[in-house]
Amino acid sequence: MAPSLTHPSGVTFVDDGEHGSTHLEAAVYYGGGETFTRSRTYSHSHIHGYNPKRAPAFQEDVITRTRRMSHDEKSVAGPRRFLIDVEETIRVVLEQEDTDGDFQISITDAGPKLVPLGTATSNGFKTFDIRGTYMLSNLLQELALARDHGRKRIVLDEARLTENPVDRLSRMIRHSFWHSLTRRIDGDGLEIITADPKNRTGRVQPRIYVPHGEPAMAEYYRKVARDKPHMNLDVQVLPEKNDDPYFVKSLNPKPGLLALAMEEVDDGKGGRTLKGFPFIVPGARFNELYNWDSYFISLGLLVDGQVKMAKNMVEHFIFEIKHYGKILNGSRSYYLCRTQPPFLTDMALQIYNQLDRSDMEANRQWLKRAIQAAIKEYHTIWVAEPRMDPKTGLSRYRPDGVGIPPETEATHFTHILEPYAAKHGISVLEFSEKYNNGVLKEPGLDEYFLHDRAVRESGHDTTYRFEKRCANLGTIDLQALLYKYEVDIATAISEVFDDELMLEEDFPLMPFPPTPESYANPHRERSTARPQTSDEWFERAEWRRGVIDKYLWNESKNLYFDYDTVLEKQSLYESVTAFWALWAGCASEEQCWKVVSQSLKKFEVLGGLVSGTEESRGKVSLDRPNRQWDYPYAWPPHQIMAWVGLERYGYLEEAQRLAYRWLYMMTTAFVDFNGVVPEKFDAVKLSHLVEAEYGNQGIDFKMVPREGFGWMNAAYQVGLSFMTTHMRRAVAACTSPEVFFGRAARAEIALAQATAASTDPLDLAMETLSLAA
């Protein structure tokens, strides 16, 4: 009779050949009980507490192992697996490899980049070396995930450490990052989302503002406050007109979250209750719903099949337009006066095209609500004064507001305020309080903050492109977006609503075409007076195209520029947002060709497209520091808009080349810096370690990246859709764009030469003579 074996209770034994899927999500991979193999037992087995073996040492000298070579003997026993004590291995890895103490393993760490792990088939007796930054950082990430799931020891597949980096990052975005960035505003989600890293008032009491006209919602949150007294939740109801700038300023000492859309559901007790629609936040210090971030995030969600989540975000935008008058910059009280670049129509149509076709009428009604909301936003915000300049017909970023924007870092405006404080002989803090309260009047400072708020509404905060003039500029990006609104609305009315859309909400329609005289006339047609037709919206789009060509297109420079409506001339800052005209479709074929052939090279660098040219930015110094939306920085929105725009006009190779550059930069950062996915990059240095006014977001994590950053996640997933299989493999191998496209160019030349040699009669004749000789 064989002797009985003893083992810890609850242990699951796995056959040596039983591996299953190695790339399951952490919740599945680490979610089971403790596992061991039924391998031969060695006298030195550490099955009940394996300690990773260290390189042998004599006093202070470490004897390093020789590097493995390509001709070394390979294991033929199948995929390698390791038996690991989680906490002890975390300790060893961090102690030995994390030399800068940031709880990440990156190429800047000076450790030996080698940790031996015991193999599972030997119960930890035999070891195999884990080498290099990528494998070690993946090991640290896997250990952190195992710890999250309460595991003390694990059997880890080597394939999780050597996983193709493109596959790994895409998988983490799809299954982990989106989940970690998900928020919901209701009783279950409030404790997470009421936290506001931008709140510097010193008052951290959670507060939610409920819009006028939603009594059931207000009562719901009051009940949450009663049921969860530990939260100390303050519930406030806003007045009907909640975007008066003086009222909004009065809320600055008590900032709070703004309520968003909810649905009525069963409460599980035979009654009904409200539940918030989940949505995605950008991440890091931006812990609320944002406007243009959400558009790009939704593109990534659609690629990943998360149509319902993207649809939820449109639901919130419809709610914001109804109750707050606009799609807000962000869903906090200090954003009530401000919106951001408008993308609602394209966002809604992209989602509509991916909705389940089993109930087309429900889909049609949903799109109808979204288009109606977009029409209201268009008339009451974008073509209404003060954003509209009736003389030119150009719309501008020009929000209302009073005082100093409260959401910025405490010292952000110190250099601006110091001269005014010195003028009055008081401290900057005292001056700020008196200026905000209206005790001190400074018209020059009022003008400065008018433009500063406009910069923030543009989404490009900050850039020398907009310095002290943004509110006066009819920008190419905004005109292109509104052209797309007009075309999208016309197309939806024509193709989905039988060329007739009756608006349900009453609001004033702005005159068309805009003139100073028509805008001076106080009479306004009402939205409910007649149905909307596609013809009038196509006419608006065609008229706007003419305005863009007249004021923004520069024939001699082969590029679109912003137009200063006060100085009445173009602002000759070269911005990559010129490519938004391609995305919107308002450029002619000739204009597109000129932009691509003559101007693309001004913005294209190793890592993709920079925000603007170095020449336009000008010299930087201690007194004139870098701004994050200028050269050499690159952002996901600019990349995606250019890729889509180029593809739209048939320049697929250029789109793929730019997408390759961007994905290469993201992938190398992911490989070299412990899985980092930041907010932005220096695309010239291929670095996420940027020196700009806000630093970078999405880089401050311990051991394992949890969220990435919203639109950067999306850019990766969207960018992969532009890649051929060959390009994807090259990105995974971190093949530099210069090498990859250099080879491709040489191959094309060789092919062209070969083709010419085989078809040109003279060449064939000369070749025949040479052979005969």
UniProtKB/TrEMBL annotation:
<protein>
    <recommendedName>
        <fullName>Trehalase</fullName>
        <ecNumber>3.2.1.28</ecNumber>
    </recommendedName>
</protein>
<dbReference type="Pfam" id="PF01204">
    <property type="entry name" value="Trehalase"/>
</dbReference>
<comment type="similarity">
    <text>Belongs to the glycosyl hydrolase 37 family.</text>
</comment>
<dbReference type="InterPro" id="IPR011120">
    <property type="entry name" value="Trehalase_Ca-bd"/>
</dbReference>
<dbReference type="InterPro" id="IPR008928">
    <property type="entry name" value="6-hairpin_glycosidase_sf"/>
</dbReference>
<dbReference type="GO" id="GO:0004555">
    <property type="term" value="F:alpha,alpha-trehalase activity"/>
</dbReference>
<dbReference type="InterPro" id="IPR001661">
    <property type="entry name" value="Glyco_hydro_37"/>
</dbReference>
<dbReference type="InterPro" id="IPR018232">
    <property type="entry name" value="Glyco_hydro_37_CS"/>
</dbReference>
<keyword id="KW-0378">Hydrolase</keyword>
<dbReference type="GO" id="GO:0005993">
    <property type="term" value="P:trehalose catabolic process"/>
</dbReference>
<dbReference type="GO" id="GO:0005509">
    <property type="term" value="F:calcium ion binding"/>
</dbReference>
<feature type="domain" description="Neutral trehalase Ca2+ binding">
    <location>
        <begin position="91"/>
        <end position="119"/>
    </location>
</feature>
<dbReference type="Pfam" id="PF07492">
    <property type="entry name" value="Trehalase_Ca-bi"/>
</dbReference>
<dbReference type="InterPro" id="IPR012341">
    <property type="entry name" value="6hp_glycosidase-like_sf"/>
</dbReference>
<keyword id="KW-0326">Glycosidase</keyword>
<dbReference type="GO" id="GO:0005737">
    <property type="term" value="C:cytoplasm"/>
</dbReference>
